[in-house]
Amino acid sequence: MNNVEMLACEMQKAGVDIVLCSFACPDLIHLERMERYSFMQPFNPKLQIYPRMDDYARAIAAANELLRELCGRLGVFYVPVAEELVGGTDLFTDNCHLHQEAIARKADIIFRHVKDYLKPKLAARGIVPAS
Q: What angle do the packed helices 2-13 and 53-74 form, to 10 degrees?
């Protein structure tokens, strides 16, 4: 988070508008046992890496909370992707990669949140966005 903060501060000094998004991962709490099990399979079978998905999900949630707090402290626009992109194998191929349809949903979430944020900024630059 220190690197994100340093980068955000440098961008703000340079007059760059910043938008940061939370990071989505499978919603293990609300998954059926077999679907939850599918995420517990080896991440890399050749290396026999067995991630603890519950630990991973908790770490992502903690990082997202730190990111949300950082955005509030620095006045950076925060997009709640993780809070709105909730699911299991319907969205995720593994612990962090999305199916193509889920990528489109993620893009819609980001667009829905930034469109009103960007309108006055674009207008101030003489750019009129399409409806």
A: 30
